[in-house]
Each structure stands twice: as structure tokens, then as C-alpha cells.
Amino acid sequence: MMKHLLGAVALLLSTSLAAAPIVSPQEPINLDQLLQQLQQGQFSQSKENQEREARFQAQADQQAQILREAIAKRDQLERLSEQLETNFEQNEVALANLTDTLTQRMGSLRELFGVLQQVAGDASSKLQSSYVSVEYPGRSDQLADLAQKMGSASKLASIEEIESVWLALLQEMTETGKVSQFETSVTLANGEKVVKPVVRVGAFNMVADGKYLELVPGTDTVAELVRQPAARYLSSAEQLQRAQQNPVTFGLDPTGGAILGLLVQAPDLQERIDQGGTVGYIILALGAIGLLIALERFVTLTLVGGKVKRQLKQSAPQQDNPLGRVMAVQQKYPEVDTETLELKLSEAILREIPKISRNLTFIKIISVVAPLMGLLGTVTGMINTFQAITLFGTGDPKLMAGGISQALVTTVLGLVVAIPMTLLFATLNTRSRNIVHVLQEQASGIIAERSERGQ
User: Fold this and answer.
1) Residue 380, class by beta-carbon neighbours within 10 Å (0-12 exposed, 13-18 middle, 19+ buried)?
2) CA gap 234, 264 in Å, rounded
3) Rounded Cα gap, residues 448 and 455, in angstroms
4) Do 170 and 281 lie in a common domain?
5) Within 13 Å and on the Cβ side, how many CA atoms surround 201?
6) Which chain regions cross the lipid bilayer (predicted)?
7) Which of 172, 180, 270, 380 has the fewest Cβ atoms within 10 angstroms?
8) How confident is the model at residue 210 (pLDDT cuts 50, 70, 90)?
9) How confident is the model at residue 244 (pLDDT cuts 50, 70, 90)?
């Protein structure tokens, strides 16, 4: 009301000011004219004020009418406010009564909707990490929206929404037992996306171009594993893609990718060897040298053994084998006595022994040194591990496990080299001893024959 009254007064004042004429005073010539102009201006201003007061009093009835209208409007708004407050209180009471009625009528349905909300939420997270969702995208989002809707007490699920949860679970169970082939976008190891045919094995694994795929978390897309498992698993994946109706062997991960992720993280043979460091490379180098020597000795002793066997069947000595060279001593000294011949034969045998047993001692040394070097690498690795524990503490078990694993690699390499070297040394030493034994046996026979002839 006060706002309307002030507005009316301001309107009247502005109207009066606008109606007043503006008189431009002339420039005074002297002080008398200036005084006269000031007296006239004061008079005209007083006259204008009187006229304004008269007009304001004449409009008093209009201002009273505006005031009455403002008061009437205020009273009307107050009555409307009281009416709305009354309706609000009545609606609150009615809403509380309806809520109690709904709670009573729902009864066991409330428990049903609670279980439905939990099942929908669990199924949504399960379907989000399922390979089946790659072929049928959008299933997890639908169940997530339903679970969020059920979280509000004022919203209930319809029959169709309840059936959608059941159908989604039934579809997941059905697709788990199928091997399906379809086309989808695959992110390659270099980051490029290509649409290609893929094979899905239930809800467990997915392969494309003979390589295993992984599900990208939070999406319905797949990507190639940056690090693939062993070759025997990749070959089974290729067989699966080429198979039509015949059953094939396939490396299945029942955990949906967890075991496969751990499998590809395991270091391969080359990485295991690299963990051995410098000591490991030295052990392998010694093993390679020992293997080459053993191979040369094996071939040589096999050839010499064959020639000795052929010499046993011949009476004429041949110079291409140790036995022939030993037998040639008898013909070289036909008239010497038995003792001298025995010494000459012993000399010939001793001359042949170094050729027969050459480098066998080096193989034996490698079989002894290799495990010692492996132990050296293990001790060095354990020292580094304890130094890391001193710096970083024992809060991370992987730090200790990784250091100990690397330290034990050298021991494994030492044993891997020492065991075959020991077996090769035993085998080659036996062969060389057999040849020497044949030489000694034939030399003893020659001596016995000469002795009998002398008698």
C-alpha cells in the first residue's frame, strides 16, 4: 500500500515540474537590474509552489482511491495465503495417510522389490564384465537404471521390468554354454581400432586372429592383449577359429580373464635368463662351451671305437686307430725280450690315452664350477635384496619376492648346466676307458703271446 502511495506522489510531482514554464533570465547590466531580477524570480517561484499545492490538494481524492485499492488487494492476498496454508496442511495429512496405506498394502512386496533391486545391481556389475555383453551391448545399463529406480521408495517396478531381470540372467546362462562368432570393433596392440570377426567361448574368453582378447573395463569393447600367453595356447586359439563342427582343444580361463592376466605376466624363458644377470650369462656360456666339447668328444670317441672294433677283426695293424698303432709296436720290435716289449706297449698306450681322454677334464670342471657360480649369483642377489629391504622396508612383499626370485635364477642356471655336464662326463669317460681297456687287453695278449713263443 505504501508503495502505491509513494508512486502516486512521485507521479504528481513530476507532472507539476514538467508543467512549470522555464524562463531564461536576461543578463543584468548593473547591480540594480540584478537585484530586480532576483526579486522577480523569488516571486515567480513562490507563485509556482502555490499552484503545485493547489493541484496536489485537488488530486487528494484520486490518491485516496489508489490507497483503498491497494488495501483491498492486500486483504485479498492475505485470504488467499490463509487458504493455501490450510490446503497444504490438509494435503500433508492426506499424504501421510496414503503412505501408511501403501505400506500396509505392499506388505511382502517391499521385501520383493528390495531383493529385485539387489539382484538388478549385482547382475548389472556381472554383465558389465562379461564377454557376452560385447555381442549384446547395453544390458548392464538397463539393469543399472532399474536398480537406481528401485532405490527411490516412491517408484515401483512394473511386471515388464521384473521380467527383464529374469530374461537377462537367463540369457547370460544360455550364452555361457555357447561358442559364438560375430564381428565387432577390436582395439589392436598399437591402439588402432579394426572391425574383425571374433570367436566368443561362453563368458570366459574371446579370440581373434589367433590372439586372446580382453574386455575393456567399463565398456562393451575388447582389445588385444599386449602380452600374449605361450605358443601352445595361441595354437589352440587358431584351431578354434578354423574349426567348423569338430571338437578342438582350447585353453579356457574359467575366471573370465583373471588367470589369463596372471599367466601373461609370468616371465618367459628369455626373461628368466635375463634375470640371472652377468653371472647367468657366464654360466650359460660355460655350458655352451662344455656342450660343444662334449659333442666333439662324443663324435670322436664313436669313430675311434668303431675303428678299434674293426681292428679287432683284422690281424694286420692299421695306423688310423689307437689299437693298430699299439699292435704295430710288436712288428717294430720283433726280437726284443718280453719285458722290453711290455714297456714299449705301455709307452704306446700312454701315448694314446691323452688323445682318447682329451678335454674330458674340462667338462668335469664345468660340472663342478657351474653350481658354484650359481651359488655366487644367488648370494649376490640376496645381498641386493636385503639392501632394498633396508631402504624401503618390508611393507611390500612383492619387492622381496621379486629380488629372491631373481637371486635364485642363477642357482637354477648353474644346476641346469651342471647336471647334463656331469652325465656327459660320465658317459664320455666310460667310452674312453673302454677304449683304453681294449688297448691294455690287447697289449697284455701280445705280451703273453711273445712270452709263450719265447718259452
Assistant:
1) middle
2) 12
3) 11
4) no
5) 24
6) 279-304, 361-383, 403-426
7) 270
8) confident
9) confident
